[in-house]
Amino acid sequence: LARIAAYANAGVDPAIMGIGPVSATRRCLDKAGWTLDQLDLIEANEAFAAQSLSVGKELEWDASKVNVNGGAIAIGHPIGASGCRVLVTLLHEMLKRDAKKGLATLCIGGGQGVALAIER
């Protein structure tokens, strides 16, 4: 289906929980040698609306590329399986659109974040 181009995790002050994907995304894209503008699709888990809006605002990504079928608020946020849901949704949409580069990202409790760059 695709290959992992890069991945990264990050931890931030738990007092600003939810913003971890910002640092993880930046690290991941740096490792892949990519920029946000080069991404065709982004699947970002929405722990809750304010969390996803703050990540989008900080990264200044193109919202038309993010969660194109709706995010966790619309599709679901399966406890213990959110990462799988985000990745599988991204992979299927990349296949459907013949997209070449995608990013999956999630926040994790305690101020952590993860990001995974996928290439087809």
Automatic annotation (TrEMBL):
Top class in the EC scheme: transferase
GO MF annotations, alphabetized: acetyl-CoA C-acetyltransferase activity
EC code: 2.3.1.9
Keyword S-adenosyl-L-methionine part of the UniProt annotation: no
Pfam family, one: Thiolase_C
Coiled coil: none
UniProt keyword terms in alphabetical order: Acyltransferase, Transferase
Domain (Thiolase C-terminal) ranges: 1-120
Tagged with keyword Plastid: no
Family stated for the protein in its record: Belongs to the thiolase-like superfamily. Thiolase family.
Name of the protein in its database record: Acetyl-CoA C-acyltransferase
Source taxonomy: Bacteria, Pseudomonadati, Pseudomonadota, Gammaproteobacteria, Pseudomonadales
